[in-house]
Design goal:
The chain is an alpha/beta fold. The protein has a single domain, classed as Nucleoside phosphorylase domain (Rossmann fold, 3-Layer(aba) Sandwich), CATH 3.40.50. Strands 5-8-7-6-9 form a five-stranded mixed barrel, surrounded by four helices. It starts with 7 loop residues before the first helix and ends with a helix. The chain binds hypoxanthine (HPA). Hypoxanthine (HPA) binds next to strand 5, strand 8 and strand 9.
């Protein structure tokens, strides 16, 4: 039995790849010719952000022959949703038929070798929230390779071809909404993180539980707290996301269209 009512037109389109766009990365949607757009509010059971302008929608389209569903707008734990609620979009896209998922986010730098504006391919994650979308059952899924090695290889090869300076590293999921303290940044660095943010991990866990192959990318928008004399400012995070978006758009366009 289906958990969600997916419109027949979407079932017929049968998207193969899902893409979740993080803060400031909306411009990717302009690269595809949208075939159909469905607001989240039209799918019963899907949480809709109460922040005006962040209501969110699914955009369906093709990119070099690949059938895509783009989730534009996500909900976060810090808005007060439960971890089950914030991962609902992944279960919906699974029912639409996706087999691969690309997650994007804006993140703070933890690794001192990285620079703002750079993209980091996520190789693994740390979960500092104590939360899991799989709560409620004995869901002992393996997490040895949450972020697909073969997708990582494809994207890395394309990045090299396009001369995109793609960092790789571990993403730490923090609950937010406040940014970290300098001591927290030092803590996550000591524990193995390269970047820090407030999303993506619950979606990746949920997707792996549904046997969807996952890739993740962080737009490194700012140095973590205490790494410079600057204070963190949300508008600068959004601005940097928008500036760096073009590079990831190019990378995804080239990789998804490469027939792999
Ligand atoms: N910390 C947490 N989340 C973020 C940051 C940060 O510094 N920058 C963008 N998202």
């Amino acid at each position: 039995m289906s958990e969600f009512q997916i419109p027949q037109s979407v079932r017929d389109f049968n998207p193969e790849i899902g893409l979740v766009l993080g803060s400031g990365l909306g411009s990717f949607a302009d690269r595809i010719m949208p075939i159909e757009t469905i607001p989240y509010s039209e799918i019963a059971g899907l949480p809709v952000s109460k922040v005006p302008g962040h209501e969110g929608k699914f955009i369906f389209g093709e990119l070099n022959g690949k059938r895509l569903v783009i989730a534009q707008g996500r909900v976060h734990l810090y808005e007060g949703w439960t971890v089950k609620e914030i991962s609902t979009g992944i279960r919906v896209m699974h029912e639409m038929g996706i087999r691969q998922l690309i997650l994007t986010n804006a993140a703070g730098i933890v690794n001192e070798n990285f620079s703002p504006g750079q993209w980091m391919q996520i190789t693994d994650h740390l979960n500092f929230t104590g939360q899991s979308p799989l709560f409620g059952g004995a869901n002992f899924i393996d997490q040895t390779e949450v972020y697909s090695k073969s997708m990582r290889k494809q994207f890395r090869e394309k990045a090299a071809e396009l001369e995109i300076d793609l960092a790789t590293g571990v993403y730490a999921w923090m609950p937010g909404p406040q940014y970290e303290t300098p001591a927290e940044i030092r803590m996550v660095r000591t524990l193995g993180a390269d970047a820090v943010g407030m999303s993506t991990v619950p979606e990746a866990i949920q997707a792996r539980a549904l046997d969807i192959e996952v890739a993740g990318f962080s737009c490194l928008t700012n140095y973590g707290a205490g790494m410079t004399d600057d204070l963190l400012d949300h508008s600068e995070v959004i601005e940097m996301g928008a500036t760096a978006a073009g590079q990831l758009v190019d990378l995804l366009t080239a990789t998804l269209g490469s027939g792999t």
